[in-house]
Design goal:
heterodimer, A: mainly alpha, MetI-like fold, 2 domains, 27 helices, B: alpha+beta, OB fold (Dihydrolipoamide Acetyltransferase, E2P), 6-stranded mixed β-sheet, 5-stranded antiparallel β-sheet
């Protein structure tokens, strides 16, 4: 080794370090960093600043008069009550269902676990608006298929009218329950099975093990999931809009929507309600991250990764499996089936032979003739592809800075990129109205503003994909490239980027999927000509064109399923991998 | 005390992996108060055996009984659940419950199941056990704030508190650093001896097995290779596997000539045991490096002395490792370190193989 060293230094004398060049390079890197930080800051912080400005100023400077006014509108108390009753109900329902299913899946030998893995993709591939509309046909008081069936077999007292607070909670809770399932699935998997086995060896019965060891260990994870569901429900728009408004059950989001789309426009009220939601979300997410840190302290898997001994359910195996199948029917088959059923009919008919006789593909064939269909297909494609492409490239750079570089300010950059997590879609839409309505940048009412929405809203997800795939590249790989004489740029291009590619493509597809189904922000910002798919469905619903809507919906769900499948194959962080 | 007969466990294959026979027809007997170690490389079935005894894994065939009580039997379809076997177990990861403090961790086994115990009795018993393992000072500390060694003691206390019939230890020292491991080894031995508790211990570390056990059962691929006292396992290995796995050794292949003489590549070697060997039969001799003596080339001849040359010398602290060439054969030897005779590389020496340390290995393995 030593002899080799002396040889190289003597035979190939190193050129003196070009100090000036290094300085220039450093300056360039910091200039680049500044540009990145400024762009992220512009996208993320400017809407918030405008929102706060709009909310907390009146004609003559800083004032709380808007707050007072917004909260003294008649029915405010009821709105707040509804919002929290709805969110808490959803959180409880989704958390209980999701946790129970996850426990059974991870810790017992019940069969048919596959149907749960399939169900876990539902929130991703069935947009909320389609899900809610399906449920209207399943569970509305007069025509709901389930209601009618229940009445027919004499169980009419079990009727739930979907246009009510319990109905809203049921639909939203079922739609979100797979997310809890995924979170709790991970939590149960992450606890060391030896903790339960040692309790068993101590003489505890199975019930005691569950009550005194298993559940206390995942309690932080349950709390975190519940809180996340609470925030998601508080921010959700589709269910409160489609089910709550007809029932007179107003919540924050539907009030923001009414303030910004009804007449007269009430920008100040919208701003105050939006600020309230952001505050709640920020507080909630802060608690979640604290709780998560606690649950990580509990989740230290050590030892030899022995296959956890599944709880033998004995003769209960098949009854439990029946629950799985029932859940699958309720969460996946019923809504999707209803959508397909509707799409085959010229107008709604109660299920029966008459309906089957009327089946046709007429609705699908008529789609190309509707001008908004072609337009929104084009717009959705343009927007999702460009937001995904831009985000993944941009976040690759951001993540390289936050994960790999030692530049000062990288933590700031990291936290700003995750900030949009606390932005409900509707709030983001409202804020962007405030930013661009009278802005010298003439993008209001164009596709550009929608692109800005998607890029901002999905920045945290794209960043997570990018930083995960970058984090997997050991720094020794880069260092050895540097040692081989590669420059910073060519190291990034020829070593880092190719290694990141699979994770990046998975993230790209994921951002496309979520962009296509985005409704709550798009609904505030679209104009004639810039409709996207989700907006088209909304418009068809408003116009009462249910059959065409269902056909569009089926096509959309199919498309999203294919895309989610591709993302899954590429290792995107969706669903469950065995 | 613990009797295992004909124990067989097969892990069913999946789409991606073939079925694996983890244990095949294993017979084992652990006497009252004995410390028996299951020793073997990873995948030899030792942990599976332990988990079958614990009841955490269900064997396919055979019988397990503890103190005369049948815990598992495939013929009579008996399988006592783990929480009714009255066995204490220390897991490799210790499995300390992070949501309980030290006291609660130890008190848990006394509070669950059908047992009922008055509060003062429970307190008294927990504190006594904590004192035994040396954690009496910190009953209120949370498990997440314990060092590795403390966790290990806590796991031990928790296993002992129910006064189990049998104690199972699953590589309890493997997660500790080397220094701590050594000091806890002494402590473990002391605790086990003082409590007089029948113990089944699983490890892949031969030093642990040799130093702690009354008897060692060496396993390979789910089969029992040899069972016996540590001395016998080390000095009289019955097969190539045991000789090689427990400690280091040199193998010399040869033909038995009769009169305890084996003809090998380095010459005629006198051996200690010739049980079951017939004249002209090929056999293998095992000689441990530390038993081989190196002497000056001028020293007088003794039995089994050969001329050789030092090839490489490694100083490893407590000893000196040599590689010696005798003819075409390379031999490893180990001599007392800095204080012993030092030979340099390339030096011609004489190699002595003490007759009583030249062990012929049976051919059954």
């Amino acid at each position: 080794m030593t002899s080799l060293d002396t040889q190289t230094t003597t035979s190939v004398p190193l050129a003196p370090e070009p100090k000036g060049r290094k300085l220039v390079l450093n300056a360039l890197r910091y200039a680049g960093f500044t540009v990145v930080l400024a762009l992220v800051g512009y996208l993320v912080l400017v809407p918030l600043v405008f929102l706060i400005f709009r909310g907390l100023t009146s004609g003559d400077g800083l004032a709380l008069s808007n707050v007072v006014e917004a909260y003294s509108v008649r029915g405010t108390g009821e709105m707040i009550f509804n919002s929290f009753a709805f969110s808490i109900g959803v959180a409880l329902l989704a958390t209980i269902i999701g946790t129970a299913l996850a426990f059974i899946t991870v810790r017992t030998n019940a069969p048919f676990k596959g149907v749960l893995y399939a169900s876990s993709l539902v929130p991703l591939i069935i947009p909320g608006i389609l899900y809610t509309i399906s449920w209207i046909f399943l569970l509305s008081n007069r025509v709901g298929v389930i209601n009618v069936a229940l009445r027919d077999i004499g169980l009419g007292f079990l009727d739930v009218n979907v246009f009510s607070l319990p109905g809203m909670i049921l639909v939203e809770g079922l739609h979100l329950s797979p997310i809890v399932f995924l979170l709790m699935f991970a939590a149960f998997k992450a606890t060391d099975p030896a903790l339960e086995e040692s309790a068993l060896m101590s003489g505890a019965s199975v019930a005691q093990v569950i009550r005194r060891v298993t559940l206390p260990l995942v309690r932080p994870a349950i709390m975190a999931s519940g809180l996340i569901m609470l925030i998601r429900a508080l921010e959700s728009f589709e269910t409160p809009a489609l089910l709550g408004i007809p029932a007179g059950r107003w919540v924050f989001t539907s009030q923001i929507f009414r303030s910004l789309s009804g007449y007269p426009l009430r920008y100040d009220n919208a701003a105050i309600y939006s600020l309230t939601l952001v505050l709640i979300a920020v507080a909630g997410l802060a608690v979640v991250s604290r709780v998560n840190r606690r649950s990580e302290a509990f989740q230290t898997i050590t030892g030899k990764g022995y296959r956890p001994r599944p709880l033998d359910l004995g003769k209960w195996r098949y009854p439990v499996a029946l629950v799985f199948v029932l859940y699958f029917l309720l969460v996946v088959v019923a809504p999707v089936g209803m959508l397909i059923y509707l799409s085959l009919l010229p107008f709604y008919m109660a299920p029966g032979l008459d309906a089957v006789a009327a089946f046709s593909f007429e609705n699908y064939l008529s789609l190309p003739g509707i001008p908004t269909v072609g337009r929104s297909l084009r717009n959705s494609l343009i927007l999702s592809v460009s937001s995904a492409t831009f985000l993944m490239f941009f976040m690759a750079i951001v993540s390289w800075i936050t994960v790999k570089s030692k530049m000062r300010g990288r933590r700031l950059l990291d936290s700003i990129t995750t900030y949009p997590l606390a932005y409900p879609g509707l709030v983001l839409g409202a804020s962007l109205i405030f930013v661009y309505l009278r802005s010298p940048i003439p993008i209001y009412g164009t596709l550009w503003i929608l692109l800005i929405v998607y890029v901002t809203k999905y920045m945290p997800y794209a960043q997570r994909y990018a930083s995960n795939s970058i984090g997997q590249i050991g720094s020794d790989l880069e260092e050895s490239a540097h040692m081989s004489g590669a420059s910073w740029l060519s190291t990034f291009r020829r070593i880092v980027l190719p290694l990141m590619a699979p994770g990046m493509i998975a993230g790209w597809v994921y951002v496309m999927v979520v962009s296509v189904r985005e409704l709550s922000a798009s609904i505030l910002l679209y104009r004639q000509g810039t409709e996207v798919f989700s907006v088209l469905i909304w418009e068809l619903w408003e116009a009462g064109q249910t059959s065409e809507l269902a056909a569009v919906g089926v096509v959309l769900v199919l498309g999203l399923t294919v895309m989610a499948g591709i993302a899954y194959k590429l290792g995107a962080n969706i669903g469950i991998k065995e | 005390m613990l009797t295992v007969t004909g124990l067989t466990k097969v892990f069913k294959g999946t789409k991606r992996s073939a079925a694996v026979t983890a244990i095949g027809e294993l017979d084992l007997e652990v006497n009252q108060g004995e410390f028996l170690t299951l020793l073997g490389p990873s995948g030899c079935g030792k942990t599976t055996t332990l988990r079958c005894v614990a009841g955490l894994e269900r064997a396919d065939k055979g019988e397990i009984s503890i103190g005369g009580r049948v815990m598992f039997s495939d013929s009579s379809r008996t399988n006592v659940p783990p929480n009714q076997r009255n066995i204490g177990m220390v897991f490799q990861s210790y499995a300390i419950w992070p949501h309980m403090n030290v006291f609660e961790n130890v008190a848990f086994p006394l509070r669950v199941g059908k047992k009922s115990m008055s509060k003062p009795d429970l307190q008294e018993r927990v504190h006594r056990v904590l004192d035994i393992v040396g954690l009496g000072e910190i009953p209120a500390r949370y498990a997440t704030n314990l060092s590795g060694g403390q966790q290990q003691r806590l796991a031990f206390a928790r296993a002992l508190v129910i006064e189990p019939d049998l104690l199972l230890l699953d590589e309890p020292l493997s997660n500790l650093d080397a220094k701590l491991r050594e000091s806890l080894r002494f402590e473990l031995k002391r605790l086990q001896r003082e409590q007089g508790i029948t113990t089944l211990y699983v490890t892949h570390d031969q030093t642990e097995a040799l130093s702690l056990s009354n008897r060692i059962a060496v396993l390979s691929a789910g089969k029992l290779m040899q069972i016996g006292k540590p001395f016998d396992i080390y000095l009289k290995p019955e097969g190539k596997f045991v000789a090689d796995f427990v400690g280091n050794t040199n193998f010399l292949e040869g033909n038995y000539l009769g009169h305890a003489i084996v003809d090998t590549a380095i010459g005629k070697l006198q051996v200690s045991s010739t049980e079951g060997l017939r004249e002209g039969q090929p056999c293998t001799i095992s000689v441990r490096p530390e038993h081989i003596e190196l002497v000056e080339a001028t020293a007088p001849d003794q039995p089994n002395t050969f001329h050789g040359e030092i090839e490489t010398r490694l100083f490893i602290g407590e000893a000196m490792d040599y590689q010696v060439i005798i003819g075409d054969t390379r031999i490893r030897t180990k001599g007392a370190g800095a204080i012993g005779d030092r030979f340099s590389s390339g030096q011609a020496i004489k190699v002595v193989f003490p007759v009583e340390r030249c062990v012929t290995l049976s051919f059954k393995q």
